[in-house]
Design a protein that fits this description.
single chain, alpha+beta, four-stranded mixed β-sheet, globular, NUDIX hydrolase, hydrolase activity, NUDIX_hydrolase_dom, NUDIX_hydrolase-like_dom_sf, hydrolase
Length: about 210
């Protein structure tokens, strides 16, 4: 049976879990395709995550340079982390926690800058990027593992855009956050409140861990 393009319902006829780890799981779904056939799709379930574009009164962004083992080098990024603070922690609260833990900062004003689906071809991982302003310093946090080596760098928005376009900033979340803020400033666009709906917030891995 054929269907009009754009109208097919992609239902899952079976699913098998291949691996479950600390921060992700891998499952293989058998998905009903147009034309009556099925196809296997590998899906990486992942925690959701948050990131913060923290801008001070001088227009500078707090960025961190951190070692990332999968790529084998230090990257210039935004303060960010997983939604793994427990069942009662909301994304905004996670963003506040990560900003404090990684940059020793708190903020008086928060808004949603941009929502991202990282790589929807194989994973449900998604991030919400916040804009934080009205910054003030906190006592230095204790850090371990890679975070014990991170360095906070203050970068002007114009320089951050230039570093993104030149290939120095390659972290996808950082690039999206920087360019989204530059676009919002340039167009005068209104940003969403922190309780705005997050349609693609991942839930499968958290539900798996709780079951």
């Amino acid at each position: 049976m054929t269907s009009t393009p754009g109208s097919h319902e992609f239902s899952v006829s079976s699913s098998e879990t291949i691996y479950t780890g600390a921060i992700l799981a891998l499952r293989v779904d058998e998905v009903d395709m147009p034309g009556g056939r099925t196809a296997q799709r590998e899906v990486v379930e992942h925690h959701g995550a948050v990131a913060v574009v923290a801008r001070d009164d001088q227009g500078r962004i707090a960025m961190i340079r951190q070692y990332r083992h999968p790529v084998g080098r230090r990257l210039l990024e935004l303060p960010a982390g997983l939604l793994d603070g427990g069942p009662g922690e909301q994304p905004r609260q996670a963003a506040e926690r990560e900003l404090a833990e990684e940059a020793d900062l708190a903020a008086d004003r928060w808004s949603v800058l941009v929502d991202l689906v990282v790589s929807p071809g194989f994973t449900d991982e998604a991030l919400r990027v916040y804009l934080a302003e009205g910054l003030h310093e906190l006592p230095a946090a204790e850090r371990e593992h890679e975070e014990a080596d991170l360095v906070v760098e203050w970068v002007s928005l114009a320089d951050a855009v230039a570093l993104t376009l030149s290939g120095e900033i390659v972290n996808a979340t950082a690039a999206a956050g920087v360019l989204a803020l530059a676009a919002a400033d340039a167009t005068g666009s209104s940003l969403r409140a922190t309780d705005a709906p997050w349609v693609d917030e991942p839930t499968a891995f958290v539900a798996r861990r709780r079951s």
